[in-house]
Amino acid sequence: MRLLRPVRLAVTTGLAAALALLTGPVPAQAVTEPAWGLVASSCTPSDIAANRAVGIGLVEVEAYWDRYLPSGPGAVNAAYAADLRSRVTACLDAGIRVVVGPGTQYPPGWVRGLPGAALVDQRGKNSVTGAVDTVYSAAVRGAQNDYLRRLVAGLPSARLDGIRVGTSTAGEVGFPGPNEAGDGFLQSWWAFGAAPQQGSGLAAGTPATPMPGWKPGQPTWNGRTVTPAMAQNWFLWYSRSLLYGIKGQVDALRAAGYAKPVHVPSPGKGVLPADLTTAVNALLGGAGDRDGSLGRGLYYVDQFPALAGNVAGPVVVDLTGVDDATAVTARGLTPPQDRCAASDATTSVAAGTPVQNWSNLRFARAQAARAGLAAVGENPGPPAAETGGTASSDPIAEQIRRSPAYARGCDLLGFFLAFESVLNDPASGVTRQDYVRAVTG
């Protein structure tokens, strides 16, 4: 067990140091027509034919960790691996570009038994949503990265357009969110296992907490009064921990020989600067949490520049809030606040800008632009438990109609419609032709 370190009032990790190097101007990017794609394509012959018939030339294909290595480390399910490779290759050979989602959000059962696999919040509760600790646990990180290396070797990786990386049960960046301990508690902080608190079994290169034993909301720590600056330092450590998890995955992909872009799915708008001020003034005791982003550790204002400066090779953020419920609300304001503007990268962090009224896409895109990161996007999909859609979202037909304008207006490199299965389902009321008409109309 490592000796516990004294508190530091400034995070002094490589990520923090890199932030100081990212203050120069972001180079201008040419505006291009987005590539139009689909989420969760099967790449079966019938879907390939249907997509080619209407000119859809980009898809995301989901792999599944629990199917690839179902029974133990190194025990590859050869039949599944061959089928996945065959389907991805079939799409590529048909001229359809492919981004692979590795499905690390679907860990095999044996991974859940590894040391430190269970995420632990400040009350000693575990996540009940299936999440495992890919951020702090060395054992889980090692198993995950072994899987990623095998996946790269088993796919025509040099031909791919991208591979996604994430830390959550949705395959996105983030810790579990409100009520993911299953008991109605709305703000768990998932950094109270032995690894982040004591350094025991901690993933290499990932720092342990700067305040061992301190729990958000507590007014004292080791006999000292906790200040807002100390609370903010703790939060930055927590939120940047996610980037170490992402970096570990990317490093594994690069070590396996994958040199193409990595995509980082990023939900919502994250914590707003004014909300973080409110939160740390309350010592992270519950105030300022607009939408659950605090406990999830999402602070794109800080994370996107750190991501740009610390992850090897090309990085693309995937903004998963195109025409989500916040867009519906934002476009109903006077004036509307849903559309991206060229000045957003600067004004989004200026005092007094009403970014709380902006759509998730608009604010998150502004942070990507500030960091000089390219971006793609996807819509939430139909309102259902397994998607990001809610009762307040546009119906899927309206998402299809509106999303192309959002993608163009926010200068996205590509847009992925969720989901291919929706377009295959007669009961959905939407077809590939509807999608193409929305793009070309």
UniProtKB/TrEMBL annotation:
InterPro entries: GH
Superkingdom of source: Bacteria
Record's keyword terms, sorted: Signal
Signal peptide (residue range): 1-30
Keyword Zinc set for record: no
Keyword Signal recorded: yes
Region called Disordered, residue ranges: 375-394
Protein name: Beta-galactosidase-like protein
